[in-house]
Write a structure and sequence with these properties.
single chain; 35% strand; 8 helices; 311 residues
Length: 311
């Protein structure tokens, strides 16, 4: 039977949503739902326009606007959904399922794009978390093993906000398709990239060439911070000021062969300088050796002076 409805209005409505597929069942309630849908028809290529708005909890806002093929939504759907100022603690069932952690505090604002054409989902979602912190652990067989606290510290700016772009895709005809799983996969990809290469992932924070900031290079056998490396340290310090939750642990390394060779050569040169009667300040480099000088050559004797290297 052919059906056509010119317009449907909703005033002062309400909508319940529940997801019982999670480790902890999740449910939410949208109140004061208002809006309309127009052009509802069973015609094969018809498209309806919709626009709705409602409240979530005390101070949250939910909006949905776009176009949909009402009797075949998998054939065509293009809807933008926005959530503003939503408390995150009720979202703990999702983080418990996919991350093995509850949410301790925070709010979220979301801009979600539901674009489906012939069962193919393609979305470009944006998420802004405010004062977000994770809480206690929850046993979940689907939880990923990632250093989430590190990722949160890397992502949180000086205003306590985390801004993420989450492109998603999938086939809604797949029996195993789950939108929540698709979104979490996108989040996991972002987190994995950040914790495995933090300086590269935060390139916009530290500027161009951020991937090289993890190494501060010294002359072989030396401890002086070179001017080129001082610039790196300045950029790292500026970046850390913008990420107050992030703490940087520094560990020095050395090259067993190159540094040892340079230190031995320096010790020989210092010894030769002392035999010449040259007085050096503590830590002062004795400089090059003038072997053409007979006195130096005589003092050197059978000493084996090795050249310097770099690392």
């Amino acid at each position: 039977m052919a059906i056509g409805v010119e317009r449907v209005r909703v005033e002062g409505g309400a909508m319940d949503f529940a997801d019982f597929s999670l480790v902890l069942p999740f449910a939410t309630f949208i109140k004061d739902l208002n809006g309309s849908a127009s052009g509802l028809s069973s015609a094969a290529d018809s498209r309806a326009n919709l626009k709705f708005e409602g409240g979530v909890a005390d101070y949250g806002l939910a909006r949905a606007e776009g176009t949909i093929q009402p009797f075949a939504p998998k054939k065509f759907t293009d809807i933008a959904v926005a959530f503003r100022n939503i408390e995150l603690i009720p979202m703990s069932p999702y983080t418990a399922t996919f991350a093995g952690r509850k949410i301790a505090s925070g709010k979220v604002s979301l801009d979600l794009q539901y674009k489906i054409e012939n069962s193919k989902l393609l979305g470009d979602n944006k998420m802004v978390l405010d004062k977000f912190t994770l809480g206690e652990r929850v046993e979940s067989p689907t939880a990923v093993n990632l250093p989430l606290d590190l990722a949160i510290a890397l992502l949180t700016d000086s205003n306590g906000k985390i801004d993420l772009a989450l492109p998603v895709s999938g086939d809604v005809d797949n029996p195993e398709f789950s939108y929540g799983h698709v979104v979490w996969q996108a989040i996991r990809t972002v987190l994995t990239r950040i914790v495995t290469a933090p300086f590269r992932a935060l390139g916009s924070l530290f500027g161009s060439g951020a991937e090289t900031l993890g190494d501060i290079v010294f002359d072989a056998g030396g401890a002086r911070v070179l001017p080129t490396e001082q610039e790196k340290l300045r950029r790292v310090a500026e970046g850390l000021q913008k990420r107050p939750q992030l703490k940087l642990q520094i560990q020095g390394t050395w090259h067993k062969d190159v540094d040892a060779r340079a230190l031995r050569a320096r010790a020989v040169r210092a010894d030769l300088a002392a035999r010449e009667g040259t007085k050096l300040a503590p830590g002062e480099d004795p400089g090059p050796v003038a072997f053409e000088d007979r006195a130096v050559a005589g003092a050197a004797g059978a000493e084996d002076v090795e050249g310097e290297g770099h690392r």
